[in-house]
Design goal:
The structure is a single chain. With 444 residues, this protein is α/β, with parallel strands linked by helices. Helices cover 44% and strands 20% of the residues. It has helices spanning 7-16, 21-25, 50-63, 87-100, 113-123, 130-141, 145-160, 167-171, 183-187, 191-222, 237-245, 288-293, 295-298, 300-303, 318-331, 374-387, 402-410, 431-441, and strands at 2-4, 36-43, 67-75, 104-107, 126-129, 226-231, 262-267, 273-278, 306-312, 338-344, 362-365, 389-396, 412-419, 422-430. A hairpin with a 2-residue loop joins β13 (412-419) and β14.
């Protein structure tokens, strides 16, 4: 199955979607010419969603700065171990590359070094795979020193097995997708130098992990609960964090707009305090090397008190994306967590659709863009915080007023009524504080 798409037609389509090509790239270099890419995928019997995956691959390619000019899908019982596609399809792909004047071919599956080398020899153009494109996007979008270290580590691990015999291929890349991050010069070094650099990066990231753990312990000492925001890439996590906390982080309509972890404080109705931590977006076939490199960042979800799972309700594939998020969480061994699923972008939903999540304790429907439903979301967050607390009702003697400050800090103070014998308080407080007060003041 092939699809030759006219570039002018694709440009018109991008305009109809309200997304200009330069905006999707998210860069300021305003290159006059963009790489022209043909996408290729194998449709296996147990994986009928090849066309859907190819559409997502097209979004990844455009985010990386390419212009998709054609697609090819081959139904096949198994992926060819030497060339990915069958010989007949390779000839068809070569014709498509020539017809569309493509600069590169991008495959939906990760290629072995041999497959990549054989395809480049047969097609006489640069060949990348899905993993290479995602790594390239991460390299372009990383902003913090930690993010850059994580991406470089993932890229070097990925490229280590590809260094042998790549001199010719590397010499004719000349920029474009797949050349960001460590860069051509670093990849031409011998394996020992690359392994040395990998070891150095791992040590630097270990220092980052130690610093992150210290910050985490400090947060735990303060007794403020933490919620990690997780979800498929471009589900609206950053927009939600901005809307709730005025975080001011980048939120764009493109894949992996933000990679760096951001934590912000949120004060809920009733003066309850909550820390919200944004995490990197998930995606199908998230490269193993990225999961390894970003593990310390992703583990913010493991240490959180509960998860806020953001789902793009306007996307027809939302159910598949929801499952992908849980599969990634399972891979990280994050299973026994309270989950609040937020069906976002409801302002874009048309028709009647039932939004359910069997792994969530609660669900709410909102639009982070318009603010619709945010009051219900804050009520749901308050309910989750209360569910792990004890309901306190007692009179505090005037010489024990210091307890009120701790109640305000760690719990939710509902009533503070000054009476003749003391201050009557009603509050939801952590069990630890509840029993500590009982021990100090006696039971009532």
């Amino acid at each position: 199955m092939t699809n030759h798409r006219d570039p002018e037609e694709m440009k018109d389509e991008g305009t109809r979607n309200g997304i200009e090509k330069n905006d999707r790239n998210g860069r300021n270099d305003k290159r006059e010419t963009r790489e022209r890419a043909v996408l290729a995928a194998v449709q296996l019997p147990n994986r009928p969603e090849a066309e859907t995956l190819l559409r997502e691959l097209g979004e990844l390619a455009e985010t990386a700065g390419a212009e998709v000019v054609g697609t090819l899908i081959q139904p096949k019982d198994r992926i060819d171990p030497g060339t990915y596609l069958g010989s007949g399809k390779i000839e068809e792909l070569r014709d498509l590359v020539l017809e569309t004047r493509a600069d590169c071919v991008i495959t939906d599956d990760e290629l072995s070094p041999a497959q990549q080398k054989n395809l480049e020899r047969a097609l006489d153009v640069k060949v990348l795979d899905r993993t290479g494109v995602i790594l390239d996007i991460f390299a372009d979008h990383a902003r913090t020193s930690e993010g850059k270290l994580q991406v470089e580590l993932a890229q070097l691990r990925y490229n280590l097995s590809r260094l042998s015999g790549q001199g010719t291929a590397l010499s004719r890349l000349g920029g474009g997708i797949g050349t960001r991050g460590p860069g051509e010069k670093k990849l031409e070094q011998d394996r020992r130098a690359v392994r040395t650099r990998i070891g150095q990066l791992k040590r630097e990231l270990e220092d980052v992990v130690i610093h992150r753990e210290l910050n985490r312990k400090e947060r735990m000492k303060k007794g403020v609960p933490v919620a990690a925001i997780v979800g498929y890439t471009n589900a609206g996590k950053s927009t939600l964090l901005n809307r709730l906390t005025d975080a001011g982080i980048l939120a764009e309509d493109k894949l992996f707009a933000t990679l760096d972890t951001t934590t912000r404080a949120l004060e809920l109705p009733g003066k309850q305090q909550l820390l919200l931590t944004d995490t990197v977006g998930f995606i199908r076939k998230l490269p193993t090397e990225l999961i390894k490199a970003f593990r310390s960042t992703l583990e913010e979800a493991a240490y959180a008190d509960f998860l806020i799972h953001v789902v793009d309700a306007s996307d027809p594939e939302w159910e598949t994306y929801r499952k992908t998020v849980y599969e990634t969480l399972d891979l990280l061994e994050i299973r026994e967590k309270t989950v609040l699923t937020v069906f976002n972008k409801m302002d874009l939903v048309t028709g009647e659709t039932h939004f359910l999540d069997d792994r969530a304790q609660q669900t709410v429907q909102i639009s982070a863009e318009t603010g619709e439903g945010l009051d219900r979301l804050q009520e749901a967050l308050s309910d989750i915080l209360r569910s792990g607390k004890k309901h306190l009702k007692r009179i505090l003697p005037f010489d024990q007023m210091s307890w009120i400050a701790e109640i305000r800090k760690k719990g939710e103070l509902l009533t503070e009524d000054y009476q003749a014998e003391g201050v009557y308080v009603e509050a939801f407080v952590p069990a630890e504080l509840f029993y500590r007060m009982e021990k100090a003041l006696g039971t009532e």
